[in-house]
Amino acid sequence: MSDTEIPEEPSLGARFGAEVAGTFLLVFGVIGTVLFTANFTGGASGTSEWLAAGIVGVALAIGLAVVAGAYAFGPVSGGHFNPAVTLGLAAARRFPWRETWVYIVAQIIGGLIATAVLALIEAGGPDGFTSASFAGASNGYGDASPGGYSWWAVAIVEFVLTAVFLYVILGVTHRRAAVGFAGIPIGLTLVVIHLVAIPVSNASVNPARSIATAVFGGAVPLGQLWLFILAPIAGGIVAGLTFEALFGRLRRLQS
Predict the structure, then answer these.
(1) Which domain holds residue 92?
(2) pTM score, whole prediction
(3) How would DSSP label each residue in the chain?
C-alpha cells in the first residue's frame, strides 16, 4: 500500500467480530474479577479493608479491560462494547442508526460467551457452579443492591454515570482531541464510575454486561434487568443528543 492510499474500511462482519471480542474481554475481565478475586479476598478475611480492595480491584479490572479492548479492537469497530455507547454515538450523529442493531447483537453475544466461559470455570471449582455467585455479580436494586439502594436511586446513578461516560467518549474522540489517546481517559473514567456505582447498583452502565450476568443469576437479576437496560440507554442517548448543544456552543463562543 502506498503512503497516499486510504486504508480500506473494515467490513460490517469484521466490525461485528471486533465488538464480540471486545465485549467478551470487558465482561470476562470485570465479572471474572468479581467471581474469583473480589469474592476470594472478601471471603478470606471478611474485613472492610478486603472489601474495599475488592471494589478497587473490580474497578481497575474493567478500566484496564476497556483500555486493552479499545487499542486491540477499536481500530476495527470503533470499540463500543456497550449498547448504550452505540446508541449514544448514533444520537450524536457519530454512528449510523442503521448499524446499531448489528453492534448491539454483537455486544450481547460477546457478553454471554464471557459469562458462559466463567460459569464453566466456576463449575470446576471447589463449590461448583452456583447461580448465587452470578446473582451476586449481577446488577440490582433493593435487596439486590450491595448497599440496599432503592430502584429510583439506582436508576439515577445508572442514568447519570452513563451520560457522563458518553460525554467523555464524545469529547476524547472529537476531531479536535489528541489522536491516539482516547482509550486511556475512557478506561480511567470507567474506573471512577465503578468506584462510585458498585456499592449502589454493582455498576452496570452497560446493558450487555447486565444481560450477561442476569442470564446466569436467576430470577431476581432477570426480574430487575429492565432498569439496567433502560437507564443506561436513556443516559447514553440524552448525552448524545445534548453533547453538541452543550459543548459545541462553548467551543464556538471561545473561537
Answers:
(1) 12-254
(2) 0.89
(3) --TTPPPPPPPHHHHHHHHHHHHHHHHHHHHHIIIIIIHHHHHHH--HHHHHHHHHHHHHHHHHHHHHHHHHHHHHH----SHHHHHHHHHTTSS-GGGHHHHHHHHHHHHHHHHHHHHHHHHTSTT---HHHHHHHS--SGGGSTT---HHHHHHHHHHHHHHHHHHHHHHTSTTSPTT-THHHHHHHHHHHHHHHHHHHS--S-HHHHHHHHHHH-HHHHHTHHHHHHHHHHHHHHHHHHHIIIIIHHHHHH-
